[in-house]
Specification:
Fructose-1,6-Bisphosphatase, Chain A, domain 1, single chain, 9 helices, 2 domains, metal-binding, inositol-phosphate phosphatase, five-stranded mixed β-sheet, Inositol_monophosphatase-like, Inositol_monoP_metal-BS, D-Maltodextrin-Binding Protein, domain 2
Length: 278
């Protein structure tokens, strides 16, 4: 049954997952958008790392619905890993894994801004098979399936290549989330021909790379729920990703950081070189 479902998804059968994500957002996220009470917002690891009742409820909703779609699968969700870090180890197991960020861009959600999304990716043995990026307040559903391309609201999207004359727009890790070494690496982006700015929702930054609206990302953390969906989306739209070691980013971890995802291979290699300081 597992192999049948994976084959179904890889053949483009993503509708059931899309519907599960839409239902979770409609039930648990959007009724709380701009309606959060103070006690429904909690700091996890400081004032810049927030979780809300919507995050927890949406992850629980998705955990139930996604594992029902694929019996024998497991969920690696941001909130579940926060409660029990051992959950993250499932990324290296044999069972299919749903990688879930119920509300990516929680700070934006808390501020009542529309720039947040729900991220879901399906992987097995560390390989990304499909991903979904849903921004309910923006009415956007982006889907990527390995080997079949990427779509936004059902229409194919391509990242294209930046014009050689344009300044590259790069969404980078927010300074609040970087170590001194990572800050030094990111300073490599402070050069002519590059405009680096702190990222908003990582998932929506990846979507904009896949659409050709942002040229690259430069991120210094590797939690799979932030990156899995977007990396497959960018790749299937024609883009590329690489760590500073010149290797593809691995969702199972152990990556040399920072890393970049970009509209094309040339841009990815340029950003990697800048992050390496040469």
């Amino acid at each position: 049954m597992i192999d049948d479902f994976l084959a179904h998804v890889l053949a483009g059968g993503t509708t059931e997952v899309e519907e599960a994500i839409r239902k979770a957002a409609a039930a648990e996220i959007m009724p709380r958008f701009r309606q959060l009470a103070a006690h429904e917002i909690v700091e996890k690891n400081g004032p810049h790392d927030l979780v809300t009742v919507a995050d927890r409820a949406a992850e629980a909703h998705l955990t139930e619905s996604l594992t029902a779609l694929l019996p024998g699968s497991v969920v690696v969700g941001e909130e579940a890993v926060h409660a029990d870090p051992a959950v993250y180890e499932a990324l290296q197991g044999d069972a299919p894994v749903w990688i879930v960020d119920p509300v990516d861009g929680t700070r934006q959600f808390v501020r009542g801004e529309a720039g947040f999304c729900t991220l879901v990716a399906l992987a097995r043995r560390g390989e990304l098979l499909a991903s979904w990026t849903y921004a309910p307040a923006l009415g956007q559903m982006a889907v990527a399936v390995r080997g079949r391309g990427a779509t936004l609201n059902g229409q194919p999207i391509r990242s294209g290549s930046p014009s050689p004359r344009d300044v590259l727009e790069v969404a980078s890790s927010h300074p609040d989330y970087t170590t001194p070494d990572q800050k030094r690496a990111l300073l490599g982006l402070d050069t002519d021909g590059v405009h680096a700015r702190p990222c908003g929702s990582a998932g929506l930054e990846y979507l904009d790379v896949a659409r050709g609206l942002v040229d690259a990302t430069a991120f210094s953390w590797e939690y799979a729920w932030d990156h899995a969906a977007g990396l497959l989306l960018v790749t299937e739209a024609g883009g590329a990703h690489t760590t500073v070691a010149g290797e593809p980013f691995r969702i199972t971890g152990g990556n040399a950081l920072p890393f970049t995802a970009a509209r094309d291979r040339v841009t990815a290699d340029r950003i990697r070189t800048l992050l390496r300081g040469r």
